Amino acid sequence: GQQVMQIPQYQHVQEGEDFTTYCNSSTTLSNIQWYKQRPGGHPVFLIQLVKSGEVKKQKRLTFQFGEAKKNSSLHITATQTTDVGTYFCAGRVGSWGKLQFGAGTQVVVTP
Amino acid sequence: EADIYQTPRYLVIGTGKKITLECSQTMGHDKMYWYQQDPGMELHLIHYSYGVNSTEKGDLSSESTVSRIRTEHFPLTLESARPSHTSQYLCASSDKTGGTDTQYFGPGTRLTVL
């Protein structure tokens, strides 16, 4: 079945540094979504990517969808303590398929 | 913030008890979901519903059951709680308005079974 893999599982970042987390699917996706879950909180939707090669930016966050629509990345520049949390990608196969969540990347920021 | 509510937020209960976790949304969304998540770990889909009187089991086997009698309400029931059920349970709803089909999550219920 469809699997969505995220790497790395954990990311320790010094405040001010950049980092990237990756999401890979075993099958071609119709779209991919990213969510952020703060410690003790619930996942909150960040963005959806639909088109092959699509790139979207939200302030210091840059999201990219691969040309083959099988992978995605989230790049954060100049990390801040407010970026702490777990970032989940979620991929969908077909227009009506269920969202398949990755295992998440847990981000810890050191001041 | 989305209008999706879960009660109770925290529950500590003894083994063998029957419990119902409540989830309600006021957005009129057709799709609703239940996820199980251990702290800091991945989300596991245990039940979902695409509308009234429609329920399906998710990817993770669960001893819980759900019902969807009204659009806004999607309760989850454990007939006999066990320590292995200790986890956080997240309810979510979604709607494909605008083509995004974003999932809105409730605050979760943290369940501890002694």
Topology, please?
The complex is a heterodimer of chains A (111) and B (114).
Chain A: E1 4-7, E2 10-14, E3 19-25, E4 31-37, E5 44-49, E6 55-58, E7 61-65, E8 71-76, E9 85-92, E10 99-101, E11 105-110
Parallel strand pairs in A: 2-11
Antiparallel strand pairs in A: 1-3, 3-8, 4-5, 4-9, 6-7, 7-8, 9-10, 9-11
Chain B: E1 4-7, E2 10-13, E3 19-25, E4 31-37, E5 44-51, E6 54-57, E7 65-66, E8 76-78, E9 87-94, E10 103-105, E11 109-113
Parallel strand pairs in B: 2-11
Antiparallel strand pairs in B: 1-3, 3-8, 4-5, 4-9, 5-6, 7-8, 9-10, 9-11
Q: If you had to describe this structure to a student in words, what would you say it looks like?
A:
- The complex is a heterodimer of chains A (111) and B (114).
- Chain A is mainly β.
- In chain A, 0% of the residues lie in helices and 55% in strands.
- The radius of gyration of chain A is 13 Å and the shape is globular.
- Chain A starts with a strand and ends with a strand.
- The model of chain A has no long low-confidence stretch (mean pLDDT 93).
- In chain B, the strands form two sheets. In chain B, strands 2, 4, 5, 6, 9, 10 and 11 form a seven-stranded mixed beta sheet that branches. Chain B has a four-stranded antiparallel beta sheet with strand order 1-3-8-7, with no helix packed on it.
- The mean pLDDT of chain B is 92.
- The radius of gyration of chain B is 13 Å and the shape is globular.
- The A-B interface holds A 33, 35, 41-45, 48, 50, 86, 88, 90, 92, 98-99, 101-104, 106 and B 40-43, 45, 48, 58, 90, 99-108.
